[in-house]
Amino acid sequence: MTYPDKKGHFGEFGGRFVPETLIALLDELERNFYALQSDKKFQKEFKDYLAEYAGRPTRLYFAKRLSQQLKTLNVYLKREDLLHTGAHKINNTIGQILVARRMGKTRIIAETGAGQHGVATATVCALFGLTCEVYMGAEDVERQSLNVMRMRLLGAKVIPVTSGSQTLKDAMNEAIRDWVTNVRNTFYIIGSVAGPHPYPLMVREFQAVIGREARNQFLSKEKKLPDYLLACVGGGSNAMGLFHAFYNDRSVKMIGVEAAGLGLNSDQHSAALAAGTVGVLHGSKSKLLQDADGQVKMAHSIAAGLDYPGVGPEHSYYKKTGRARYVSVSDAGALRGLKLLSQTEGIIPALETAHAISYLEKLAREVKKKSSVIVCLSGRGDKDVASLKGIL
Amino acid sequence: MNRIDLTFQTLRDKKKKAFLAFITAGDPSLKATEELVLAFERSGVDIVELGVPFSDPLADGPTIQASSQRALNNKVSLEKIIRTVENIRKRSNIPIVLMTYYNPVFSLGEERFVRQAKQAGVDGVIIPDLPPEEAAQLIRVAKKADFRTIFFISPTTTSQRMKTIVKASTGFIYYVSLTGVTGSRSKLPSDIVHQIKKAKRLTKQPICIGFGISNPTQVKELSRISDGVIVGSAIVKAIVKNQGKANLVRNVESFVRSLTAQR
């Protein structure tokens, strides 16, 4: 059976938990999305923008010095950081804005944590001449000021959100409030495999190009499949993008890396899959960091893009069925990963991605024999450099 | 008979419309909530909606968001609110429904929630982020317990969906006056009459209008085209204005009286 089912459920997860006002729109979006899946003209348009504008396909780069240092692993980097705007987020924003145009929507809103999705959304809005407003937690506006500048330069309005934890979760609350209010002319470009159905499905389909390319590239280079896939998980769009094409390749082991922040016992982390329980937030049922009364807890991570108490429902499903394994890496571990890749390969990864890189050291110790691993290098680290002053 | 049904029947017999008052339970305190509910009964409120505070109130505007946060700061939880209703029931028979986001209910467990709430004297529940399609389990356990599940119709609801909602709803139907979040508005959309007429053709159940209603004039106008009006943020604001004052309850009561007089 292919997931999600007709109501957007991945087993017990997913679904559509939103105010009534949004249901008609989600139905309309779902109809459009399914129709466009088999619309050759749309698919060609999407593919052309990915190639000509975003810069696909991205390279699958063999990281030789890193592999030598790790000894037991041959590491291949799927270079999403080389895409236009510097992260995998652009794959999805191109897809969604094309859907929005087909639906005749004139105004775009988005939420952003690290600012990568905000930048990717502002970029496609500039490209197609649509109004763009991006909700961003006030704390994230602070720590990702470079991306705030980029969004403003691209003509987007960045709205700092001062409620709650002032991070991604609250930005998403505020974006949903805007959406409910302006539902008739506004399209909400959600940045991860989260939110109400059909978003987790739609974002997965737009990001699945990562895994499809990587699979072909690895097969033609190595004449076999990789042993491992590795990606960081906040909401989980780059991980799902990489994993999806390998779903039926049972020999390929998938590992998602969550942010352990100051440690899983500290209450200061973002590891919803490792330490959360099933709950409902932002339109879908999934693993969630919450207290005994069902109140959502504040997440923490050094990486703004992982600083979210929930996770996409399909990841909860992958975890429950054992198709993927989920581990976590702390703030300090991420900084080690950041330095490791920068100094062995001359590639500065985003702090989010650095969590996945860091886990390579552990994986290298775990494997019994020489193994190959594809890491989704989801974003570049330029955006973080300013905030790392004084830490590194 | 369920208190909600009884209330609407009585109102119908008297050819009167319902007035529903919303407040966040536990703001400024659960003790104050008890007193306010009794004051509402004195001032002619027909049904009370007690809001369960939630960390991520995405259907609410700034007034109820802030109120919700204050209640959470007071460590208010769904179970404590249910116990508060139990206390209220010693002194009042006014119909009470809980308005809560889904996660606190899911976390407690739907069956346990309905059992505890019903036992304490709660008459029904309104869950803004739970459409009927995801509510099968709740509807099932509620039906067995004679507990009302109130669903929403909005300005964007299609005729096809109205059928599903009308079928799932018991007690009454909540019509959302506008596309947007809770909070006072000076002007309300003109398509309300049209949508309510459409829904009326599908059901004999009472339809009450909420969201954005804040003053006596609006109460008067909307009472005419519906079976009841719901006021929330404006009452919460009145509570905030009187916070810390000895005559909080009396002042809020007189504001609510100015509204109930208009229906």
What can you see in these coordinates?
The complex is a heterodimer of chains A (392) and B (263). Chain A is built from 16 helices and 14 strands. By secondary structure, chain A is an alpha/beta fold. Chain A has two domains: 10-50 and 89-203, Rossmann fold, CATH 3.40.50.1100; 57-86 and 208-388, Rossmann fold. In chain A, the strands form three sheets. Chain A has a six-stranded mixed β-sheet, with helices on both faces. In chain A, a hairpin with a 1-residue loop joins strand 11 and strand 12. The model of chain A has no long low-confidence stretch (mean pLDDT 96). By secondary structure, chain B is α/β, with parallel strands linked by helices. Chain B has a single domain (3-260), classed as Aldolase class I (TIM Barrel, Alpha-Beta Barrel), CATH 3.20.20.70. Helix content of chain B is 49%, strand content 14%. Chain B has helices spanning 3-13, 30-42, 62-73, 78-89, 102-108, 110-120, 136-144, 159-168, 192-202, 216-225, 233-241, 248-260; strands at 18-24, 47-51, 96-99, 124-126, 148-150, 152-153, 173-176, 207-210, 228-231. In chain B, strands 5-4-3-2-1-9-8-7-6 form a nine-stranded parallel β-sheet. The longest helix of chain B is centred in the first third of the chain and has 13 residues, at 30-42. The mean pLDDT of chain B is 97. Classes of the chains: A alpha/beta (392), B alpha/beta (263).
Helices and strands in order, then pairings?
The complex is a heterodimer of chains A (392) and B (263).
Chain A: E1 9-10, E2 13-17, H1 20-37, H2 40-54, E3 60-62, H3 64-70, E4 73-78, H4 89-102, E5 107-112, H5 116-128, E6 131-137, H6 138-143, H7 145-153, E7 157-161, H8 168-181, E8 186-189, H9 199-207, H10 209-222, E9 228-232, H11 237-243, E10 253-261, H12 272-275, E11 277-281, E12 283-288, H13 313-321, E13 324-330, H14 331-345, H15 351-366, E14 371-376, H16 382-385
Parallel strand pairs in A: 4-14, 5-6, 5-8, 6-7, 9-10, 9-14, 10-13
Antiparallel strand pairs in A: 1-2, 2-12, 3-4, 11-12
Chain B: H1 3-13, E1 18-24, H2 30-42, E2 47-51, H3 62-73, H4 78-89, E3 96-99, H5 102-108, H6 110-120, E4 124-126, H7 136-144, E5 148-150, E6 152-153, H8 159-168, E7 173-176, H9 192-202, E8 207-210, H10 216-225, E9 228-231, H11 233-241, H12 248-260
Parallel strand pairs in B: 1-2, 1-9, 2-3, 3-4, 4-5, 6-7, 7-8, 8-9
Helix pairs in contact in B: 2-4, 2-12, 4-6, 5-6
